[in-house]
DNA sequence: GCGACAG
DNA sequence: ATCTTGTCGC
C-alpha cells in the first residue's frame, strides 16, 4: 500500500510525502463499534539521535509487541514520523504475525493533524498501516490554544493553526498540564477526545500510551543489558 | 528576517 | 526522547 513512504532520502523529499499524507487523512469515524485499543510509543538512549530506536505497540488487554531499528534521520522537528513510523510498523507486523488479534485503534505519543503539513507521526502511522489512529502529545508543535482550558478533567479548548482546528487541548487531571489530542487517521476529533478521556484513568496520559512507553523502555533496557 | 520547534 | 533524588500532597 503506502509503506513506500516509510523511507525517504532527503527532508525535501519527506516534505513532499508529508503533503500527500496530509491530504489522505480521513477525518471521519471509520472504526469498529468496540475497537481493540493499543498505544504506540518509542524509547531511545538520551541524546543519541543516531542510535537504535525501540518501538512498542501495547494493547490494553494483551501482550505488547516490540521492534528495534536504527533510524535514517536524526531528530528534526516536524519530521518525527520518518524516525518512528518504520520501527513502529515493524512492531505492528510482529504483532500481526504472532497470530493474535490486531488492534483496531492506536493512540500514538505525538501529534496527528496538529502539524505544519497536517502529517504528524500519528497520521503518518495511520496512513502507512491503514489503521485508525489518535495523536496524543504533551506539548505543541504548531498552532495556539484558543481561549483557556478549564481546571477540571474533561475541560478542553481548541488548538487552531492556519485557520483550522487541528487538535483539542484536554485537561486529563486537575493541576496537571493539558495534553493535545488530535485526529490521526479515520477518527473524528470528538471520538479521539472521548477515547483518550475514557482511558485516562485519572492520569495525565491515557493508559495505552503509558503501557507502550513502559514496553518500549523495557525493550531498550533488555537490549542494552544483553549486548557486549 | 527572526524565532520557534512533537519525540 | 532520557537521567536522578528528594520532596510535597492527598
Task: Tell me briefly what this model is.
With 228 residues, this protein is α+β, with helices and mostly antiparallel strands.
Order of helices and strands: HEEEHEHEEEEEHH
Strand content: 15-25%
Q: What value does the Rg take, in angstroms?
A: 16 Å
Strand order of the largest sheet: 3-2-1-4-5-9-8-7-6
From the spread of the alpha carbons, the general shape counts as globular
- The CATH superfamily bears the name archaeoglobus fulgidus dsm 4304 superfamily
Q: How would a textbook summarize the main sheet? A: 9 strands, mixed
CATH class: Alpha Beta
- Poorly predicted runs of 5 or more residues: none
* Terminal Cα span: 38 Å
- Give me the count of strands: 9
Report the total helices: 5
CATH topology: archaeoglobus fulgidus dsm 4304 fold
Based on helices, strands and strand pairing, what is the structural class?
alpha+beta
Number of domains: 1
What do the pLDDT scores average to?
Answer: 95
Question: What percent of the residues sit in helical stretches (DSSP H or I)?
Answer: 25-40%
Reported CATH architecture: 2-Layer Sandwich
Catalytic activity: Endonucleolytic cleavage at apurinic or apyrimidinic sites to products with a 5'-phosphate
Protein name: Endonuclease V
Enzyme class: hydrolase
GO molecular function: deoxyribonuclease V activity; magnesium ion binding; RNA endonuclease activity producing 5'-phosphomonoesters, hydrolytic mechanism; single-stranded RNA binding
Amino acid at each position: 500500500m503506502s509503506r513506500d513512504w516509510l523511507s525517504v532520502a532527503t527532508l525535501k523529499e519527506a516534505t513532499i510525502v508529508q503533503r500527500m499524507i496530509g491530504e489522505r487523512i480521513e477525518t471521519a469515524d471509520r472504526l469498529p463499534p468496540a475497537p481493540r485499543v493499543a498505544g504506540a510509543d518509542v524509547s531511545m538512549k538520551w541524546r543519541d539521535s543516531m542510535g537504535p530506536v525501540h518501538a512498542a505497540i501495547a494493547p490494553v488487554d494483551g501482550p505488547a509487541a516490540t521492534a528495534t531499528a536504527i533510524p535514517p534521520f536524526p531528530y528534526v522537528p516536524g519530521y518525527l514520523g520518518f524516525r518512528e513510523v518504520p520501527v513502529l510498523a515493524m512492531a505492528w507486523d510482529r504483532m500481526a504475525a504472532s497470530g493474535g488479534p490486531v488492534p483496531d485503534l492506536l493512540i500514538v505519543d505525538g501529534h496527528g493533524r496538529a502539524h505544519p503539513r497536517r502529517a504528524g507521526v500519528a497520521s503518518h502511522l495511520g496512513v502507512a498501516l491503514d489503521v485508525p489512529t489518535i495523536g496524543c502529545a504533551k506539548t505543541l508543535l504548531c498552532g495556539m490554544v484558543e481561549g483557556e482550558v478549564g481546571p477540571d478533567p474533561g475541560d478542553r479548548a481548541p488548538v487552531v493553526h492556519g485557520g483550522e482546528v487541528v487538535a483539542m487541548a484536554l485537561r486529563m487531571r486537575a493541576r496537571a498540564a493539558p495534553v493535545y489530542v488530535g485526529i490521526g487517521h479515520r477518527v473524528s476529533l470528538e471520538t479521539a477526545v472521548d477515547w483518550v478521556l475514557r482511558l485516562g484513568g485519572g492520569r495525565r496520559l491515557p493508559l495505552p500510551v503509558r503501557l507502550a512507553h513502559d514496553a518500549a523502555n523495557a525493550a531498550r533496557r533488555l537490549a542494552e543489558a544483553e549486548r557486549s
